Amino acid sequence: MLQAVKIKDGVYWVGAIDWNLRDYHGYTLPGTTYNAYLVIGEKVALIDGTYPGHEWQLIERIESVLPLEKIDYIVANHIEVDHSGSLPLFTKKLPNVPIYMTEIAKKGFARHYDTSAWNIHTIKNLENLSLGNGKTLTFLEAPFLHWPDSMFTYLGEDKILFPNDAFGQHVASSERFDDELGIDIAMEHAAKFVANLIVPLSPKVLKKLGEVTELGVPIEMIAPSHGIIWRSHAADIINAYVNWANGVAKNKITIVYDTMHYSTGTAAQYIAEGAITEGVEVKFDLLKDGRYEGVHRSDVVRDILDSKAVIVGSPTLEDYPLPTVAGFLYYLMGIRPGKQTQKKIGFAFGSNGGKGGAPKVITELLEKAGIQIWHEPVEFTYRPDSADKEKFFKLGQEIAKEIKKMP
Fold first, then answer.
1. What are phi and psi of 402, to 5 degrees?
2. In 38-97, which ranges are continuous DSSP H helix?
3. What span, in angstroms and rounded, lies between the C-alpha atoms of 33 and 198?
4. pLDDT tens-digit profile of 251-298?
5. Which residues contact residue 110 at a Cβ distance below 8 angstroms, ignoring those fewer than 6 apart?
6. Exposure pattern of 159-174 as b/e (b: 16+ CB <10 Å)?
7. Are strands 378-381 and 16-18 parallel, antiparallel or unpaired?
8. pLDDT value at 399 more than 70
9. Cβ pair 230, 222 in contact under 8 A
10. Residue 68 has what DSSP assignment?
11. Cα–Cα distances in Å, from 169 out to 35, 226, 360, 397?
12. How far is CA 301 from the centre of its chain?
């Protein structure tokens, strides 16, 4: 039988580990977890659930602590199926159990499932639910973190925040806590999660964190619905979220490109070498496609998260960038890293077979992603000659000098 993990007296992790998931929300990951929590007072509450097909893990872990029918309440912080997929089964096994959710979630659940027989209780912001025996849940509406229906649940006596997707990470591991997995690894997974999902919501992140601060509620542990639980570094992940939402970046340049015969790749190399001579960090990301092992777009946006400059290159194919570059830029436009945080600068470059045009298109798409264009598009025909190489080397030096002036 699968076992629950005690995280505090009367509080257990009872979620599911998905060891095999490799692509989700458009980005790559080494598996994930669907975290659910059991809070036991005189009454028992189950917070969140699992993706469909993983209900058996949830049930076995619960029953390692108490019989399933002892659950008095279900808290649904978010309607997305990776958290709510177990609800149809649980509402059959536990008919009439009250399910706590936001008003918007009630409407959303009705679009996902047949909720006609559900006993739905819509919460008011800061509403309390006493479980007795020193266990009180408080519900905080958190719209657009990251869906409009989202809410946080706070267990006051134990100072635990259950924020659903916020502060989460996609990682499957045998460790349940930050100090077990290692803080550096945990933070890196959290950064990728933020870069791919949370950056467009940065103003709302800051607003909600400000509201929580104003409430004066102490938070000693953060138990998200994906990944590890922050028990030793709760303050560190909160501070990291504040920095990411404010666009705090390093003296770092991310160069993103694809290449046909390594002409554009050569230009990228000279830009990187020029920047390196100025003592800045460079991430050199060849986009992944079927020809070779490159960097997936979800890892590229992680690199961009704390970069001050984004430089994108592609040869021209029928007047446009290569599909890998175009697809990456459309993905970047949805995230809008330069619009939600402090400014990021950049430019476009590439090779052509006579006509050209890809760098101009890249420039337009970078602007739509909020990147401030620092230099006009740079193109060359066929392979870069010695003058082109010198030009790209100097461009690398100059943009490195520019970002060192930026806050």
1. -65, -45
2. 55-63, 81-84, 87-93
3. 18
4. 999 999 999 999 999 999 999 999 999 999 999 999 987 666 789 999
5. none
6. ebbbbbbbbbbbbbbe
7. unpaired
8. yes
9. yes
10. G
11. 11, 5, 36, 35
12. 10
The identity of residue 80, as a single letter, is: E
pLDDT at 374 over 70: yes
* Per-residue confidence band for 349, with pLDDT thresholds at 50, 70 and 90: very high
Rounded CA separation 231/220 (Å): 7
The size of the chain, in residues, is 407
The residue type of 207 is: K
* Residue pLDDT, tens place only, 175-220: 999 999 999 999 999 999 999 998 888 888 888 888 888 888 899 9
**pLDDT given at position 27:** 85
What is the CA 4 to chain-centroid distance, rounded? 26
Are the CB atoms for 25 and 164 separated by under 8 Å? no
- In the chain, what percentage of residues exceed pLDDT 90? 86
According to the model, what pLDDT value does residue 342 have?
Answer: 73
Q: What is the pLDDT of residue 110?
A: 95
Write down the mean pLDDT value for the chain: 94
Cα(288)–Cα(21) distance, integer angstroms: 19
- How far is Cα 360 from Cα 344, in angstroms, rounded to an integer? 18
Beta bridge partners, 155, equal: 137, 160
Q: Which SS3 state, helix, strand or coil, does residue 307 take?
A: coil
What one-character DSSP code corresponds to residue 371?
A: P
Q: Order across the sheet with 73-75: list the strands.
A: 5-8, 11-13, 37-40, 44-47, 73-75, 98-101, 119-122
Structure tokens at 118: 């559900």
Q: Which of 74-88, 335-349, 351-365 has the lowest mean pLDDT?
A: 335-349
CA angle 368, 373, 376 (to 5 degrees): 120
User: 127: which residues sit within 8 A by CB, 6+ positions away?
Assistant: 138, 139
Alpha carbons 57 and 302: distance in angstroms, whole number: 31
Domains (range + CATH), the chain: 5-245 (3.60.15.10), 253-402 (3.40.50.360)
What's the CA gap between 128 and 122, in Å, rounded? 12
The span from the CA of 62 to the CA of 160, in Å, is 19
